[in-house]
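Incident review: delayed structure delivery

Summary: a single-chain prediction request sat in the queue longer than the usual turnaround. Root cause was a stuck worker, restarted by the on-call engineer. No data loss occurred. The affected request and its eventual output are reproduced below so the record is complete for anyone auditing the incident later.

Affected input:
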Amino acid sequence: MKLYMHPVSMTSRPVRLFAAENKIAMDEQVVDLFTGEHMQPAYAAINPSCMVPMLEDGDLRLTESSAILKYLADKIGSPAYPKDLKQRARVNEVMDWLNTNFYREWAYNLCYPQLFPHMKRRSDEAQAATLEHGRDNAKRWMKVLNDHWIGPNNNYLCGNQITVADYLGACLVTLGEVVGIDFAPYPNVRRWLDTMRKLPSWPQVNEAFDALAASTKGQKFVTLS
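Output delivered after worker restart:
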């Protein structure tokens, strides 16, 4: 198997973390997002979406982080993607929620427009409106994540057993560290992230991401407060 990825990518990190934790052997090919390699013809020819990650396994190509995680878990028979129909449906629900609700506001309307020049809006007014919208909706989703999905009694997103939803969710939520978001108002989220950080492979997989977060420390960003 071969994984096209970038070590800082929020959606590459979950796949790399799951693979590392489960000792899944795969070659890694870095696609340099910061130089625009993902938009060049060579990569676009094999992934028209021009995004990472992408997994190649023989004649199969998968281009969505969520789908890759599920495929890998099924391939090795991991309990992180339960066989029980109702348990699996819950994992699917949380992963869809993360992708369609939470991450849209968290990343694309709050964090990314502040971090990446090509995602900044064309006027100060449009930028401010985007960040206000992203902040208000991200606060809403963080409350749902804290109170509903995790709550005071669960160790993980779907109960007390780790699932592929946790690998995806933790790597998406930690994006907030890059813009200095304080997780103190969300104690269940903070507790869950602390648990995920105890995974043996977390430091190695997140080394480049941690360096990015360190590089922005002290800068002024719009956050949730």
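Verification: The longest strand covers residues 2-5.
Action items: add queue-age alerting; document worker restart procedure.
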